[in-house]
Amino acid sequence: MSGAKGIIISGGPSSVYATDAPQFPKELFEGKIPILGLCYGHQLLAHVLKGRVEPGKEHEYGAASLKIVLQDTILKDIKDNAPVWMSHGDEVLEAPPGFQVLARTKTCRVAAMADVQRKFFGLQFHPEVTDTPCGTKIFINFLFDVCGCVKDWHVKGLIDDLKDKIRAEVGERHVLFFVSGGVDSTVAFTLCTNALSPRQVTGVFVDTGFMRKNEREEIERTFIHRGWKNMYYVPAADTFLEAVKNESDPETKRRIIGDCFLELQTRLENEIGLEPGKWILGQGTIYPDTIESGHSQEASVIKTHHNRVPAVQEMIERGLIIEPLKDFYKDEVREIGRQLKLPEHLVAKYPFPGPGLAVRCLCSRERFEIEPKPADLDRIAKKRGLRAWRVPLRTVGVQGDHRSYSNLVILTGQAGLEIYSEVARTMTRKVRNTNRVTFLITPIPPERLNGASVVSAFLDEKRLDLLREADAISHEMLLKEGLSEEVWQFPVVLLPLTLGKGETIALRPVESTDAMTARHANLPLSFIRRLGNALKKLEGVDMVLYDVTDKPPATIEWE
Ligand code: XMP
């Protein structure tokens, strides 16, 4: 710690009372260095310095409004009722002796606290996410006013630095890249090709069978147009589909797909003529992939990204992988892409997960009945003139920095998006095992849902084709109606929930900046209904749902 001007203790999934809670050296709290504790860090300060931390009566996820008690030091110039982003289960009930409460929220007594004398500060909310717009100002207050730091780092020259690093890391070896056509792998591949030479870098576009409609053609056009000759197309849909055909668990599907990519390497070694031991693998991994895969110290596994499966971890440890973008967020990667003069349509493309449609096509081993109007959910829905159905089909969420895998809720009845969204927020806070809430778009009598059930289904070509078609229709309509700019990403999901004939499509358009947090998109209801009707016409579609959950508590992708 010597030489540090200040310390920021971040959030994390632990509780300060857990036996495996992260440990800190005692001298940290002797008052020699300013500390800013965020979420878990805030609770840790309160715990160590003899305040009171307990499990909150309600878990709090998503937007909250900051009621300023004292606009001092780190809250200097922060306005009353500023929006902030929360994600916590435990809560500080009493600030430690010597601390003042600087702010509260409706459900949180100590949302910000300070011991100005010792320069200790704690925030229950997350100033580091873009959904806390005043967060940057709070960091500026802490870094410059409290810690006395000086700004002497600039983005200019970043590309040159990155290229130098790539050259030093790769040396004489060859680099093999799996390029999906998405932003991250394309930017990373371009960066490496520019830093080295097209002779030293090979790109491979693998058709996994989980790609979107026309993806291959679009990718080929882009690269041929750029005159790149170091790019190959590998059809491998049969291999990937065969490997996951009996799996329903999302993490298992992700692992298998990651392993399939690695097995392909061996095949390609021969086909492309790479000399064993003289090449390394290039990946477009970005920072959130690392955090959510649980490979930064103390982070919980939310999902294992395809480029973070155990076999890849092992290769990283052996120095066989280069990931030039691993410290950047998506918005920064886009900026690097622009500096590399990649076409805007490619740089601005919606993110698409490595395992592709495989994690947007939900599977189920068993058959389940749907639970009509369960009392705990229906009570909340009824207050807003709606009704609720619990679907025992689980999707992934992130609650208090932990992974959750919980039931889905469907709301029926007419309301504005803000009402659906408020009901979703209340349900995910108050009802256990609930992390995702949708509303029914298709105009069917709600009572028909009584007969709905989840059926056994796995990944197969027919289901993937249906999803591909629904995805293409959704994106075309969005573009045609000039609404593309309104969303940051638009996953379309297929779930084995049936009314007797077909399955269910769920729409998940979100707004975000860096994917660490997200809000469901507020598309016009008239558009949502028209899109729902268009999708309902597809053979094999019984219902269409719209997801109104933020991240947290639900992740962007359902699996
Ligand atoms: P979640 O669903 O965790 O997703 O909110 C955050 C962002 O990451 C994308 N995503 C992936 N990207 N490999 C990737 O390259 C993956 O395995 C993967 N899984 C999720 C997701 O689409 C969103 O933009």
Helix content: 25-40%
Question: Total number of β-strand segments?
Answer: 24
Widest sheet: strand ordering: 1-2-7-6-5-3-4
Distance between the termini: 40 Å
Major sheet size, sense and barrel closure: 7 strands, mixed
Count the DSSP helices.
15
Distinct ligands, ions and cofactors found in the model: xanthosine-5'-monophosphate
Nearest-integer average pLDDT: 92
Alpha-beta content class: alpha/beta
* Global outline: globular
Write structural notes for this entry.
This protein has 559 residues and is of the alpha/beta class. 31% of the residues lie in helices and 24% in strands. It has 15 helices and 24 strands. Strands 1-2-7-6-5-3-4 form a seven-stranded mixed β-sheet. A hairpin with a 7-residue loop joins strand 22 and strand 23 (519-520). The longest helix has 24 residues, at 250-273. The chain is globular and about 65 Å long. Residues 288-289, 292, 302-303, 305-306, 351, 353-355, 489, 515, 551, 555-557 line the site of xanthosine-5'-monophosphate. Xanthosine-5'-monophosphate binds at residues 288-289, 292, 302-303, 305-306, 351, 353-355, 489, 515, 551, 555-557.
